[in-house]
Protein backbone atom coordinates (compact mmCIF):
# COMPACT_ATOMS: atom_id res chain seq x y z
CA UNK A 1 0.00 0.00 0.00
CA UNK A 2 1.15 3.53 -0.61
CA UNK A 3 1.16 6.39 1.88
CA UNK A 4 -2.07 8.04 0.68
CA UNK A 5 -4.03 4.78 0.82
CA UNK A 6 -2.85 4.02 4.34
CA UNK A 7 -3.55 7.56 5.54
CA UNK A 8 -7.05 7.56 4.00
CA UNK A 9 -7.90 4.24 5.67
CA UNK A 10 -6.69 5.51 9.04
CA UNK A 11 -8.84 8.65 8.71
CA UNK A 12 -11.82 6.43 7.90
CA UNK A 13 -11.04 4.27 10.96
CA UNK A 14 -10.22 1.25 8.82
CA UNK A 15 -7.56 -0.35 10.97
CA UNK A 16 -5.18 -3.27 10.42
CA UNK A 17 -3.61 -5.36 13.20
CA UNK A 18 -0.01 -4.78 12.05
CA UNK A 19 1.64 -1.74 10.47
CA UNK A 20 5.18 -2.56 9.40
CA UNK A 21 6.66 0.81 8.36
CA UNK A 22 10.15 0.52 6.87
CA UNK A 23 12.52 2.31 4.50
CA UNK A 24 15.10 5.05 4.06
CA UNK A 25 12.78 8.08 4.39
CA UNK A 26 11.76 8.56 8.04
CA UNK A 27 9.35 11.43 7.30
CA UNK A 28 6.46 9.29 6.07
CA UNK A 29 7.02 6.68 8.80
CA UNK A 30 6.88 9.37 11.48
CA UNK A 31 3.77 10.93 9.93
CA UNK A 32 1.81 7.66 9.94
CA UNK A 33 3.00 6.78 13.43
CA UNK A 34 2.03 10.19 14.80
CA UNK A 35 -1.45 9.94 13.31
CA UNK A 36 -2.03 6.53 14.91
CA UNK A 37 -0.55 7.77 18.19
CA UNK A 38 -2.79 10.85 18.25
CA UNK A 39 -6.06 9.63 16.80
CA UNK A 40 -6.89 5.95 17.34
CA UNK A 41 -7.49 6.25 21.09
CA UNK A 42 -8.98 9.02 23.20
CA UNK A 43 -6.82 10.59 25.89
CA UNK A 44 -8.68 8.60 28.56
CA UNK A 45 -8.17 5.32 26.67
CA UNK A 46 -4.44 5.90 26.17
CA UNK A 47 -3.63 5.47 29.87
CA UNK A 48 -4.28 1.71 29.76
CA UNK A 49 -4.17 0.91 26.07
CA UNK A 50 -1.23 2.70 24.48
CA UNK A 51 2.33 1.45 24.86
CA UNK A 52 5.52 2.78 23.30
CA UNK A 53 8.54 0.48 23.14
CA UNK A 54 12.07 1.14 21.86
CA UNK A 55 14.02 -1.39 19.86
CA UNK A 56 17.29 -0.82 21.70
CA UNK A 57 15.67 -1.74 25.01
CA UNK A 58 13.16 -4.34 23.83
CA UNK A 59 13.23 -7.98 22.82
CA UNK A 60 10.86 -9.49 20.29
CA UNK A 61 9.03 -11.62 22.87
CA UNK A 62 8.18 -8.43 24.81
CA UNK A 63 6.62 -6.96 21.66
CA UNK A 64 4.62 -10.14 21.04
CA UNK A 65 3.38 -10.39 24.64
CA UNK A 66 2.33 -6.73 24.60
CA UNK A 67 0.45 -7.18 21.32
CA UNK A 68 -1.41 -10.24 22.67
CA UNK A 69 -3.05 -8.27 25.50
CA UNK A 70 -6.68 -7.29 25.15
CA UNK A 71 -7.71 -3.63 25.50
CA UNK A 72 -9.20 -2.34 28.74
CA UNK A 73 -12.46 -0.38 28.42
CA UNK A 74 -11.71 0.40 24.77
CA UNK A 75 -12.13 -1.19 21.36
CA UNK A 76 -8.43 -1.13 20.56
CA UNK A 77 -4.97 -1.00 22.06
CA UNK A 78 -2.00 0.60 20.30
CA UNK A 79 1.55 -0.75 20.57
CA UNK A 80 4.19 1.45 18.90
CA UNK A 81 7.69 0.02 18.53
CA UNK A 82 10.20 2.72 17.66
CA UNK A 83 13.75 1.96 16.41
CA UNK A 84 12.56 -1.59 15.65
CA UNK A 85 15.50 -2.04 13.27
CA UNK A 86 17.57 -2.61 16.43
CA UNK A 87 15.53 -5.61 17.56
CA UNK A 88 17.30 -8.92 17.11
CA UNK A 89 15.44 -11.80 15.51
CA UNK A 90 12.64 -9.61 14.10
CA UNK A 91 11.62 -12.63 11.99
CA UNK A 92 10.24 -14.23 15.17
CA UNK A 93 7.35 -11.77 14.92
CA UNK A 94 5.91 -14.43 12.59
CA UNK A 95 4.59 -16.24 15.68
CA UNK A 96 2.26 -13.30 16.32
CA UNK A 97 1.64 -12.32 12.70
CA UNK A 98 0.14 -15.75 11.96
CA UNK A 99 -2.77 -14.96 14.31
CA UNK A 100 -2.79 -11.25 15.30
CA UNK A 101 -5.48 -9.73 17.51
CA UNK A 102 -7.88 -7.53 15.59
CA UNK A 103 -8.18 -5.31 18.66
CA UNK A 104 -4.43 -4.48 18.57
CA UNK A 105 -2.73 -1.98 16.30
CA UNK A 106 0.93 -3.02 16.34
CA UNK A 107 3.04 -0.31 14.71
CA UNK A 108 6.61 -1.30 13.84
CA UNK A 109 9.00 1.55 12.94
CA UNK A 110 11.76 -0.20 10.98
CA UNK A 111 13.68 2.84 9.77
CA UNK A 112 16.56 2.85 7.28
CA UNK A 113 16.02 -0.85 6.56
CA UNK A 114 13.49 -3.00 4.76
CA UNK A 115 12.08 -6.40 5.50
CA UNK A 116 13.47 -9.25 3.41
CA UNK A 117 10.78 -10.01 0.83
CA UNK A 118 11.92 -13.61 0.64
CA UNK A 119 11.08 -14.27 4.28
CA UNK A 120 7.76 -15.71 5.43
CA UNK A 121 7.19 -12.74 7.76
CA UNK A 122 6.98 -10.36 4.79
CA UNK A 123 4.37 -12.49 3.06
CA UNK A 124 2.25 -12.98 6.19
CA UNK A 125 2.20 -9.29 7.17
CA UNK A 126 1.36 -8.41 3.57
CA UNK A 127 -1.74 -10.61 3.89
CA UNK A 128 -2.99 -9.58 7.34
CA UNK A 129 -1.62 -6.07 7.84
CA UNK A 130 0.11 -3.13 6.18
CA UNK A 131 3.58 -3.25 4.68
CA UNK A 132 4.87 0.19 3.77
CA UNK A 133 8.30 1.01 2.33
CA UNK A 134 9.13 4.69 2.70
CA UNK A 135 11.52 5.55 -0.11
CA UNK A 136 13.77 8.59 -0.37
CA UNK A 137 12.63 11.05 -3.00
CA UNK A 138 15.01 11.85 -5.84
CA UNK A 139 16.13 15.48 -5.95
CA UNK A 140 13.95 16.16 -9.00
CA UNK A 141 10.90 14.84 -7.10
CA UNK A 142 11.31 17.19 -4.14
CA UNK A 143 9.90 20.37 -5.80
CA UNK A 144 6.69 18.50 -6.62
CA UNK A 145 6.43 17.26 -3.05
CA UNK A 146 7.01 20.83 -1.76
CA UNK A 147 4.22 22.13 -3.99
CA UNK A 148 1.86 19.43 -2.73
CA UNK A 149 2.77 20.08 0.90
CA UNK A 150 2.10 23.80 0.52
CA UNK A 151 -1.08 23.24 -1.47
CA UNK A 152 -2.49 21.28 1.47
CA UNK A 153 -1.94 24.43 3.53
CA UNK A 154 -3.33 26.79 0.86
CA UNK A 155 0.11 28.18 0.06
CA UNK A 156 2.36 28.29 -3.03
CA UNK A 157 6.06 28.83 -3.73
CA UNK A 158 8.00 30.38 -6.61
CA UNK A 159 10.03 27.79 -8.60
CA UNK A 160 13.28 29.63 -7.82
CA UNK A 161 12.50 29.64 -4.11
CA UNK A 162 11.74 25.92 -4.26
CA UNK A 163 15.09 25.30 -5.94
CA UNK A 164 16.88 27.19 -3.17
CA UNK A 165 15.28 25.03 -0.50
CA UNK A 166 16.04 21.86 -2.44
CA UNK A 167 19.65 22.94 -2.98
CA UNK A 168 20.43 23.64 0.66
CA UNK A 169 18.25 21.05 2.39
CA UNK A 170 18.59 18.26 -0.15
CA UNK A 171 15.85 15.64 -0.02
CA UNK A 172 15.50 15.54 3.77
CA UNK A 173 11.71 15.94 3.94
CA UNK A 174 11.61 16.44 7.71
CA UNK A 175 13.96 19.43 7.47
CA UNK A 176 12.12 20.84 4.46
CA UNK A 177 8.71 20.50 6.12
CA UNK A 178 10.07 22.19 9.25
CA UNK A 179 11.45 25.14 7.27
CA UNK A 180 8.24 25.45 5.23
CA UNK A 181 6.19 25.58 8.44
CA UNK A 182 8.44 28.39 9.70
CA UNK A 183 8.00 30.29 6.44
CA UNK A 184 4.21 29.91 6.55
CA UNK A 185 4.12 31.38 10.05
CA UNK A 186 6.19 34.40 8.97
CA UNK A 187 4.08 35.20 5.89
CA UNK A 188 2.25 38.53 6.31
CA UNK A 189 -1.54 38.38 6.57
CA UNK A 190 -3.10 37.94 3.15
CA UNK A 191 0.08 36.59 1.51
CA UNK A 192 -0.02 33.01 0.29
CA UNK A 193 3.08 32.75 -1.91
CA UNK A 194 6.64 32.10 -0.71
CA UNK A 195 9.45 33.73 -2.69
CA UNK A 196 13.24 34.01 -2.44
CA UNK A 197 13.01 37.15 -0.28
CA UNK A 198 11.07 35.22 2.38
CA UNK A 199 13.68 32.47 2.33
CA UNK A 200 16.59 34.91 2.62
CA UNK A 201 14.98 36.77 5.54
CA UNK A 202 13.80 33.77 7.52
CA UNK A 203 16.12 30.88 6.69
CA UNK A 204 19.36 32.71 5.98
CA UNK A 205 19.94 31.44 2.45
CA UNK A 206 21.17 34.28 0.23
CA UNK A 207 18.96 34.83 -2.82
CA UNK A 208 21.88 36.42 -4.69
CA UNK A 209 24.81 34.22 -3.67
CA UNK A 210 23.92 30.57 -4.10
CA UNK A 211 24.62 27.68 -6.46
CA UNK A 212 21.48 28.36 -8.46
CA UNK A 213 22.68 31.93 -9.19
CA UNK A 214 26.16 30.60 -9.99
CA UNK A 215 24.62 28.33 -12.65
CA UNK A 216 22.86 31.36 -14.13
CA UNK A 217 26.06 33.42 -14.16
CA UNK A 218 27.95 30.62 -15.90
CA UNK A 219 25.10 30.13 -18.38
CA UNK A 220 25.21 33.84 -19.25
CA UNK A 221 29.02 33.86 -19.11
CA UNK A 222 28.68 36.75 -16.70
CA UNK A 223 32.26 36.83 -15.41
CA UNK A 224 31.70 39.62 -12.87
CA UNK A 225 28.67 37.97 -11.26
CA UNK A 226 30.31 34.53 -11.23
CA UNK A 227 33.42 35.92 -9.51
CA UNK A 228 31.33 37.75 -6.92
CA UNK A 229 29.49 34.53 -6.06
CA UNK A 230 32.72 32.51 -5.90
CA UNK A 231 34.33 35.12 -3.62
CA UNK A 232 31.25 35.02 -1.37
CA UNK A 233 31.48 31.20 -1.22
CA UNK A 234 35.18 31.42 -0.33
CA UNK A 235 34.42 33.78 2.56
CA UNK A 236 31.47 31.67 3.81
CA UNK A 237 32.63 28.07 3.34
CA UNK A 238 30.42 26.60 6.09
CA UNK A 239 27.24 27.82 4.43
CA UNK A 240 28.53 27.07 0.93
CA UNK A 241 30.51 23.82 1.05
CA UNK A 242 32.75 23.09 -1.91
CA UNK A 243 31.40 19.53 -2.25
CA UNK A 244 27.83 20.85 -2.62
CA UNK A 245 28.88 23.35 -5.30
CA UNK A 246 30.78 20.68 -7.24
CA UNK A 247 27.82 18.30 -6.96
CA UNK A 248 25.25 20.83 -8.19
CA UNK A 249 27.51 21.93 -11.06
CA UNK A 250 28.00 18.31 -12.06
CA UNK A 251 24.23 17.69 -12.15
CA UNK A 252 23.69 20.93 -14.07
CA UNK A 253 26.25 20.25 -16.79
CA UNK A 254 25.22 16.60 -17.04
CA UNK A 255 21.73 17.80 -17.92
CA UNK A 256 23.18 20.33 -20.38
CA UNK A 257 25.00 17.46 -22.08
CA UNK A 258 21.81 15.39 -22.15
CA UNK A 259 19.96 18.37 -23.63
CA UNK A 260 22.45 18.53 -26.53
CA UNK A 261 21.48 15.03 -27.62
CA UNK A 262 17.71 15.32 -27.33
CA UNK A 263 16.04 14.58 -30.65
CA UNK A 264 13.01 16.78 -30.03
CA UNK A 265 13.84 20.02 -28.24
CA UNK A 266 10.59 21.74 -29.21
CA UNK A 267 8.35 19.67 -26.94
CA UNK A 268 9.09 21.33 -23.59
CA UNK A 269 7.12 18.75 -21.63
CA UNK A 270 9.19 15.98 -23.16
CA UNK A 271 12.40 17.92 -22.47
CA UNK A 272 11.39 18.46 -18.83
CA UNK A 273 10.44 14.80 -18.40
CA UNK A 274 13.67 13.55 -20.00
CA UNK A 275 15.91 15.88 -17.99
CA UNK A 276 13.73 15.40 -14.88
CA UNK A 277 13.49 19.13 -14.19
CA UNK A 278 10.71 21.66 -13.70
CA UNK A 279 9.60 23.04 -17.11
CA UNK A 280 10.19 26.51 -15.63
CA UNK A 281 13.96 25.89 -15.87
CA UNK A 282 14.14 24.53 -19.43
CA UNK A 283 15.22 27.98 -20.66
CA UNK A 284 18.37 27.80 -18.51
CA UNK A 285 19.46 24.58 -20.19
CA UNK A 286 18.69 26.00 -23.65
CA UNK A 287 20.89 29.02 -22.94
CA UNK A 288 23.66 26.90 -21.43
CA UNK A 289 23.65 24.59 -24.46
CA UNK A 290 24.18 27.63 -26.73
CA UNK A 291 27.13 28.81 -24.65
CA UNK A 292 28.75 25.39 -24.19
CA UNK A 293 28.91 22.97 -27.12
CA UNK A 294 29.00 19.20 -26.41
CA UNK A 295 32.82 19.07 -26.48
CA UNK A 296 33.17 21.93 -24.00
CA UNK A 297 30.44 20.45 -21.78
CA UNK A 298 32.29 17.13 -21.61
CA UNK A 299 35.50 19.03 -20.74
CA UNK A 300 33.68 20.83 -17.90
CA UNK A 301 32.34 17.56 -16.49
CA UNK A 302 35.87 16.17 -16.60
CA UNK A 303 37.15 19.32 -14.82
CA UNK A 304 34.55 18.92 -12.09
CA UNK A 305 35.80 15.41 -11.39
CA UNK A 306 39.39 16.69 -11.39
CA UNK A 307 38.66 19.46 -8.88
CA UNK A 308 36.58 17.17 -6.70
CA UNK A 309 39.66 14.95 -6.35
CA UNK A 310 41.91 17.96 -5.74
CA UNK A 311 39.62 19.12 -2.93
CA UNK A 312 40.22 15.72 -1.31
CA UNK A 313 44.01 16.05 -1.54
CA UNK A 314 44.77 14.26 -4.81
CA UNK A 315 47.50 16.13 -6.72
CA UNK A 316 46.99 19.06 -4.36
CA UNK A 317 49.14 19.85 -1.35
CA UNK A 318 48.10 23.28 -0.12
CA UNK A 319 45.56 25.01 -2.39
CA UNK A 320 42.42 25.88 -0.41
CA UNK A 321 38.95 24.89 -1.59
CA UNK A 322 38.13 28.56 -2.13
CA UNK A 323 41.08 28.98 -4.47
CA UNK A 324 40.23 25.72 -6.23
CA UNK A 325 36.72 26.99 -6.89
CA UNK A 326 38.00 30.28 -8.31
CA UNK A 327 40.39 28.38 -10.58
CA UNK A 328 37.63 26.00 -11.69
CA UNK A 329 35.17 28.76 -12.53
CA UNK A 330 37.86 30.64 -14.47
CA UNK A 331 38.55 27.54 -16.57
CA UNK A 332 34.82 27.01 -17.21
CA UNK A 333 34.33 30.60 -18.38
CA UNK A 334 37.44 30.87 -20.53
Summed up, what is this model?
The chain is of the alpha/beta class and 334 residues long.
Detailed description of the structure:
There is one protein chain. The protein is an alpha/beta fold. The protein has 3 domains: 3-133, Rossmann fold, CATH 3.40.50.300; 139-202, Helicase, Ruva Protein, domain 3 (Orthogonal Bundle); 211-333, Zinc Finger, Delta Prime, domain 3. 55% of the residues lie in helices and 10% in strands. A 5-stranded parallel beta sheet has the order 2-3-4-1-5, sandwiched between helices. The protein has a two-stranded parallel sheet with strand order 6-7. Helix 7 (142-151) packs across helix 9 and helix 11 crosses helix 15 (282-291). The longest helix is centred in the C-terminal third of the chain and has 19 residues, at 242-260. The protein starts with a helix and ends with a helix. The mean pLDDT is 93.
Specify the CATH class of the largest domain: Alpha Beta
Calculate the terminal CA-CA distance, rounded to whole Å. Answer: 53 Å
Spans where pLDDT lies below 50 across 5 or more residues: none
- The CATH homologous superfamily name of the largest domain equals P-loop containing nucleotide triphosphate hydrolases
Kindly report the spatial arrangement of strands forming the biggest sheet.
2-3-4-1-5
Radius of gyration: 25 Å
CATH domain fold name of the largest domain: Rossmann fold
Shape: elongated
Overall pLDDT metric: 93
Query: Major sheet, described briefly?
Result: 5 strands, parallel
- Structural class of the secondary structure composition? alpha/beta
Q: CATH architecture of the largest domain, please? A: 3-Layer(aba) Sandwich
Total of DSSP H or I helical runs spanning 4+ residues: 17
Amino acid sequence: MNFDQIFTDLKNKIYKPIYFLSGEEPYFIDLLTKYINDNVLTEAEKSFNQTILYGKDTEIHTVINSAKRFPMMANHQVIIVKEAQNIKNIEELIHYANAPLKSTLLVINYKYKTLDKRKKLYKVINEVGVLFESKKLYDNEVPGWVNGYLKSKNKTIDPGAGMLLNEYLGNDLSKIANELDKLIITLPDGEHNINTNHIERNIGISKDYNNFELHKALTQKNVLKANRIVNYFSQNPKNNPFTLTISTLYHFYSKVLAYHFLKNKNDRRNVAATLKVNPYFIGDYEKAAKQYNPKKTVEIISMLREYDLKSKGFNNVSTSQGELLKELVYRILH
